[in-house]
C-alpha cells in the first residue's frame, strides 16, 4: 500500500444490487497489531501467520523498524517475521510521523522499558469516536514503577530507572488497550501483578496465548482478574492469528442490508455468538460450516431489534455501525444503546441524508450500567424502518462508520460517491476486490 492519491480516494457506487458470493476474512486487526508489539519483548525471531494486508499492519511494521527491529512482511502468504534481537530508541520526529494514524504506539511502552529503560510515546491517532483518553494506560505504567513525564512538547517520555515491578492494579472500566498494556508491561516485571477489572475479549486471550508461548506466566480468573507472574526473559513465538470477527460481522450486515447472500470464509462462530443471536433476531439466516459462515437475507421484512453495546461477551461496539444500516430496513423501531464510546453515532447523519429515520438521545435507552448516564452525550439511537435509501456523496468519518456508509451506498438506489475511502484500508483487507467479487457496481 502506498501514499494516497486524493483523486483515487473516491469510490463511485451504484447501489441496489444484492451482494452475493464468497469472500475470505483473515486475521484480526485488533490482535495482529498487538502480537507484533509483543515480539519486541524477546530478542530473537517471532513468526505471525494469517496476517491481513491492512494499513494498521504497515504502521506497526514501520514503528518496529524505526526501533531497529527487522520486519519482513509477506502479504500474499499473510506471514510476518519479526527479529527483535536488536532494539534501539527511535528518532522522536520519525515516530511522530506515524503516530497520527494509530493508537498502537502507547503499547510500545512496556516492551521498550524492558528492553531499553525508556520509551517515547507521541500524540496518538486512531478513529475519532470519543475522547479516547490514555489515563488507565499511564496509571498502570506508574503502578508498575514507571516515571511518566508529560511535559515533553512532542509527546510523553516514560522511564523506568529501577525496572518495572509487579503491582496490584484495578481498571475502573474493562479497557481493551489498558489490559493489553498491563500484560505487555507486567510479563517481564519483577514479581507478581494482579489486574482486576480486566477486559477479556478473544483478541486479548489470543495475546495471552502468544505471551504464554513466549514463556510468560499468566492466568485468567472468571471474575475479570488476570494474574501475571513476572519472568526473567522471553523468547520469540510462532502463532496463527484468530480471524477478524469485526470484519466478518461487517460483511454479514452487508448481506442483510443489500438483501444478499455472502459466505464469509474464515468467520469463526465461537467469537461471534452474541452477534449471531442478534443477526437471527433481526431476521437474517446463517449456516455455520467448517471453514466459515454463510449469511443471507431470506426475503420478507426484517424485524426490529434492541441492542446495547458492551465489553466481551456483550455486543461489540464495532459491530454496531454496519448493523444500523440493516436496521434502517427492518419494519418498526430498533434501538441501539452505545455504552463503550460516548460519541459513536456521528456516522448516522449521512444515513439520514440518504433517507434513514434515526433519532439520537442523550438518555440511556437500555438497562446496562452506563458511564454516560446523566452526561451530555448522544449515545442512544432509535432507528425507524423500513426507509428506502438513495445514493449521496459521503465523506468517510472513521473506519467502522465508513464501512457502514459503503454498505448504505450499496443498499441505496442510484449512484453515490464515497470520499476518503482509503481510511477503510486501515481495517478491511482488499475491500474493493471483495466488493467486486460480490457483484457490487463500484468504480
Ligand atoms: C480497542 O480500542 C479497539 N482498537 C477498538 O477498535 C475497539 O472499539 C475497542 O478496543 C473496544 O472493543 C484496537 O484494538 C486498536 P478501550 P481501545 O481502551 O483499546 C475508555 C476499531 O474500529 N478509556 O477498550 O482504545 C475509552 O475512552 C477500533 O477497530 C479510558 O477512559 O479501547 C472508551 O470509552 C475502534 N481511559 C473505553 O474506555 C483509558 O486510558 C473503551 O476503550 C483507556 C480507555
TrEMBL record:
Pathway: Cell wall biogenesis; peptidoglycan biosynthesis. HAMAP family: MurA (MF_00111). Gene3D superfamilies: Enolpyruvate transferase domain. Keywords: Cell cycle, Cell division, Cell shape, Cell wall biogenesis/degradation, Cytoplasm, Peptidoglycan synthesis, Pyruvate, Transferase. Phosphoenolpyruvate binds at residues 29-30. UDP-N-acetyl-alpha-D-glucosamine binds at residues 103, 318, 340. Its EC number is 2.5.1.7. Belongs to the EPSP synthase family. MurA subfamily. It is an enzyme of class 2 (transferase). GO terms for cellular component: cytoplasm. Cell wall formation. Adds enolpyruvyl to UDP-N-acetylglucosamine. GO terms for biological process: cell division; cell wall organization; peptidoglycan biosynthetic process; regulation of cell shape; UDP-N-acetylgalactosamine biosynthetic process. The modification 2-(S-cysteinyl)pyruvic acid O-phosphothioketal is found at residue 127. GO terms for molecular function: UDP-N-acetylglucosamine 1-carboxyvinyltransferase activity. It is found in: Cytoplasm. It catalyses: phosphoenolpyruvate + UDP-N-acetyl-alpha-D-glucosamine = UDP-N-acetyl-3-O-(1-carboxyvinyl)-alpha-D-glucosamine + phosphate. The active site is at residue 127. Residues 15-435 form the Enolpyruvate transferase domain. InterPro entries: Enolpyruvate_Tfrase_dom, Enolpyruvate_Tfrase_sf, MurA_subfamily, RNA3'P_cycl/enolpyr_Trfase_a/b, UDP_GlcNAc_COvinyl_MurA. This is UDP-N-acetylglucosamine 1-carboxyvinyltransferase.
Amino acid at each position: 500500500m502506498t501514499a494516497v492519491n486524493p483523486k483515487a480516494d473516491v469510490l463511485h457506487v451504484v447501489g441496489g444490487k444484492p451482494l452475493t458470493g464468497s469472500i475470505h476474512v483473515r486475521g484480526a486487526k485488533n490482535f495482529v497489531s498487538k502480537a507484533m508489539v509483543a515480539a519486541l519483548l524477546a530478542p530473537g525471531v517471532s513468526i505471525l501467520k494469517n496476517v491481513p494486508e491492512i494499513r494498521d499492519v504497515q504502521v506497526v511494521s514501520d514503528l518496529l523498524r524505526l526501533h531497529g527491529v527487522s520486519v519482513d512482511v509477506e502479504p500474499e502468504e499473510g506471514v510476518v517475521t519479526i527479529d527483535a534481537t536488536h532494539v534501539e530508541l527511535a528518532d522522536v520526529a520519525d515516530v511522530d510521523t506515524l503516530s497520527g494514524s494509530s493508537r498502537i504506539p502507547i503499547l510500545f511502552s512496556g516492551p521498550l522499558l524492558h528492553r531499553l529503560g525508556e520509551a517515547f510515546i507521541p500524540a496518538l491517532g486512531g478513529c475519532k469516536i470519543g475522547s479516547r483518553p490514555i489515563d488507565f494506560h499511564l496509571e498502570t505504567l506508574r503502578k508498575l514503577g514507571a516515571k511518566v513525564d508529560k511535559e515533553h512538547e512532542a509527546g510523553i517520555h516514560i522511564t523506568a530507572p529501577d525496572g518495572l515491578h509487579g503491582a496490584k492494579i484495578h481498571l475502573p472500566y474493562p479497557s481493551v488497550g489498558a489490559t493489553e498494556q498491563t500484560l505487555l508491561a507486567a510479563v517481564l516485571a519483577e514479581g507478581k501483578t494482579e489486574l482486576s477489572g480486566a477486559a477479556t475479549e478473544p483478541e486479548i486471550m489470543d495475546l495471552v496465548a502468544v505471551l504464554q508461548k513466549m514463556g510468560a506466566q499468566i492466568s485468567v480468573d472468571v471474575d475479570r482478574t488476570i494474574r501475571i507472574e513476572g519472568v526473567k526473559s522471553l523468547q520469540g513465538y510462532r502463532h496463527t492469528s484468530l480471524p477478524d470477527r469485526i470484519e466478518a460481522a461487517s460483511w454479514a450486515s452487508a448481506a442483510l442490508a443489500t438483501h444478499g447472500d455472502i459466505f464469509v470464509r474464515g468467520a469463526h462462530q465461537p467469537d461471534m455468538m452474541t452477534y449471531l443471536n442478534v443477526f437471527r433476531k433481526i431476521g437474517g439466516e446463517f449456516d455455520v460450516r467448517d471453514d466459515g459462515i454463510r449469511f443471507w437475507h431470506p426475503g420478507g421484512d426484517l424485524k426490529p431489534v434492541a441492542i446495547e453495546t458492551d465489553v466481551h461477551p456483550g455486543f461489540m461496539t464495532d459491530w454496531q455501525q454496519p448493523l444500523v444500516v440493516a436496521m434502517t430496513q427492518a419494519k418498526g423501531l430498533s434501538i441501539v444503546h452505545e455504552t463503550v464510546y460516548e460519541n459513536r453515532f456521528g456516522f448516522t447523519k449521512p444515513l439520514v441524508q440518504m433517507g434513514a429515520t434515526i433519532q439520537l438521545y442523550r438518555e440511556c435507552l437500555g438497562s446496562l450500567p452506563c458511564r454516560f448516564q446523566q452526561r451530555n452525550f448522544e449515545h442512544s439511537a432509535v432507528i425507524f424502518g423500513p426507509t428506502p435509501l438513495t445514493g449521496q456523496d459521503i465523506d468517510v468519518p472513521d473506519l467502522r462508520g465508513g464501512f457502514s456508509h459503503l454498505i448504505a451506498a450499496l443498499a441505496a438506489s442510484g449512484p453515490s460517491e464515497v470520499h476518503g475511502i482509503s481510511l477503510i484500508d486501515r481495517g478491511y483487507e482488499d475491500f474493493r476486490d471483495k466488493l467486486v467479487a460480490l457483484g457490487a457496481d463500484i468504480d
